[in-house]
Amino acid sequence: MRRTLGYYRFDTPAEYQALREVYEHLCPLLNFFYPSGRIIQKTRVGSQVEKKHDPPSTPFQRLLDCPEVQQGIKEELRRRAAKLHILKQKHLVDLALAKLMRAYEQKARGGVAERNVPPAQGTAHPQGASSMVGKRRKAPGGGAEEKGR
After folding, report:
1. pTM here?
2. How many domains does the chain divide into?
3. How crowded is the C-beta side of 32, counted as CA atoms within 13 Å?
4. Phi, psi for 139 (deg, rounded to 5)
């Protein structure tokens, strides 16, 4: 989630509501459309560890392939997947992120008097409210995280 949301501190009620909206749209995007690889075996060879990976697939596809999952659940997942469109879902995530960044910027300008917890020292100002899903972002140590690592 840090890849999408960054390392900002969201601690106001407005930010909390916007964050819930981001998760509401981001979770289906990640679970139904974004494939990920899984490690299926690790073997130590001397001082190195060799890893075997499953072919990348979405969590949705893994559930459909799993024989332990009941057919009724699989049908419900298929119905949910049929209602989703990747571009529409991505657009909804982008809108929710923009709303979250606006709430954060309003707080940074002092527009929100009430906070649930005290502010962190040295909180960074966001770079903008553009789409952040899958983009590189500065890590707290100064380096840039790479997508997929």
Report:
1. 0.63
2. 2
3. 21
4. -85, 160
